[in-house]
Amino acid sequence: MDHDPLPGDHPETGHVSTGALPPDTDVQALVSAGYERYRHLGEGAVAGYIPALAAASPSAFGVCVAGVGGRLFSAGDADQEFAIESISKLFVFALVCHALGHDQARRKLGVNSTGLPFNSVMAIELNADRTMNPLVNAGAIATTSLVPGTTAEEKFESIVAAMSRFAGRRLVMDGGVYESEAATNDRNRGIAHLLDGYGRMYCDPDLATDVYTRQCSVRVSARDLAVMGATLANGGVNPVTGEQAIETSYCKRVLAVLATAGLYEQSGEWLYDVGLPGKSGVAGGIVTVSPGKGGLGTFSPPLDAAGNSVRGQHITRYLSEALGLNLFASAPFA
Fold it and tell me: Average pLDDT in the 253-279 region?
């Protein structure tokens, strides 16, 4: 189906949703209360299938809220670094939208949810578009293949530079995590070659898989994730540095895909409970975005059966309600 815009589809000016976080003292009090409420929760298990992640402390727990005005509110291990993992997919998709335009990105990658696990091969075979969306592994590796650059080093530098603009500081790769994942990513290499056979890879499949593995190994903290989320909530402008990380017009496209596919087959339940676009990573991070208000970053390694941080989900639900972030919430007109 052709998705070229119709005349008048993109007016130069228009109204946008508005809103604000509660007063600063209330935000910090609620962040601290949520942290205390869930810090001793013992559910879930640390990811064991990637050796470098299996050593993570199950007691680690941090949370940070970043407002679009640049204010940060945190509790616990908000500055502890960990591998960004699948959360990187979101920001690499933003980079590709910026490089190609959102319509071209949709044509090459798709924007529909698969309803199947993140590493599903069946999803590739069952769907004519093959990649389906940029937040499952197939679509994410294809997205990485579209990143500017001809060599692995050039592509990876483009990714690190882009994610660093979102975070407001220079991010670096964790070499130990990269080596551990590179030794265990046979499935991703197979997915890349399968996509290549269908004409849905846009560079050498092994090169794309290697760069994808590197991008998942970049180190961030819950504080970084909060700022990165707040950048998307703030029309693409980093609220701490003031730097434009992505054109404003692309933010709503990125967040639309995030809302429908950010938590894979649990995305519908997440949206039903939390009411916000969010993305999880197997190292225990979750980033959540409230457009016009701010971003929320959490870190806690124990995961549920679907690979999502247990404490991270609980505190995000709590703060979405407590801070009035849910996109679908409204009050009767008085």
Answer: 90
